Amino acid sequence: SQLGKKIEMVLMVYDCEGLGLKHLWKPAVETYGEVLTPILMPTPPIHTPAPKIFPVAYNLVKHFLSEDTRKKVVEVLQKYIDPEQIPVEYGGTLTDPNGDPKCSSKINYGGEVPQHYYVRDQLTQQYEHTVVVNRGSSHQVEYEILFPGCVLRWQFRSEGADIGFGVYLKTKVGERQRAGEMTEVYPNQRYNSHLVPEDGSLTCSTPGIYVLRFDNTYSYLHAKKVSYSLEVLRPDAASAQQIQKLGDKLSE
């Protein structure tokens, strides 16, 4: 009513200048996605300018965006906003009365969090285990799952380079098996966990021996140091019964 016209669209602009690896902490990215997903679904965001690290960051957050939104990320601002309403900093003609191209009097920019707000100097993830995976080899960690519906959870990071990771179900008990001899239940792939710590989980529908495998077989030159934490969460009674019923139906 104040503008005297109907507002049909809200446009969100993300200034990615200064984005770096220190911002790509996966739990924070996931929280960011949960908060913004309801907003981003109907609204095309615009990112400008995009630094060199943007492709890495975009790969982390792109699953929060619809396919249509992804295509619109690279479109120019002028397609949605009158150039007279866009600061010169972003390709428009608008400036502050003092000539500021970023229009700081109109836009409340964020920036670095003042250090007096810090609770501690650095947030460090503590891991339960550390292992060196030699070049051309792998490291396997076995967990026996007794009940269907148990959840395997993991967190890990590597030093210096990426590492492969996958989860398998053993087909023979009491002996070490190669990856190709086991049933793959969580696809093996390489993770840039030297840049961003990796975490994930798997709901085990079948009891058995599960193998969490850190894969460095593709590296002919470098060993990889990996720090990790693993845990198994038991299902509640209701979930266990539902999974058991589903398993019974599949076996009929």
Task: Give a description of the structure.
The structure is a single chain. The protein is an alpha+beta fold and 252 residues long. The protein folds into two domains: 13-113, Phosphatidylinositol Transfer Protein Sec14p, CATH 3.40.525.10; 129-251, Sandwich (Jelly Rolls). The protein has four helices and ten strands, in the order βαβααββββββββα. The protein has helices spanning 26-40, 54-61, 67-72, 237-251; strands spanning 13-14, 46-47, 129-133, 138-145, 150-159, 163-169, 183-191, 198-204, 208-215, 224-233. The strands form three sheets. The chain has a four-stranded antiparallel sheet with strand order 3-10-5-8, with no helix packed on it. A four-stranded antiparallel sheet has the order 4-9-6-7, with no helix packed on it. Helix 1 (26-40) links the parallel strand 1 (13-14) and strand 2. It comes from Pedionomus torquatus (Plains-wanderer).
According to CATH, what is the topology of the largest domain?
Jelly Rolls
- What is the radius of gyration computed over CA atoms, rounded to a whole number of angstroms? 24 Å
Question: Any idea what the CATH architecture of the largest domain is?
Answer: Sandwich
Binned strand content:
25-35%
The total strand number stands at 10
- CATH classification, class level of the largest domain: Mainly Beta
Tell me the series of helices and strands, N- to C-terminal: EHEHHEEEEEEEEH
Label the structural class.
alpha+beta
Arrangement of strands in the largest sheet: 3-10-5-8
Treating each run of at least 4 consecutive H or I residues as one helix, how many helices?
4
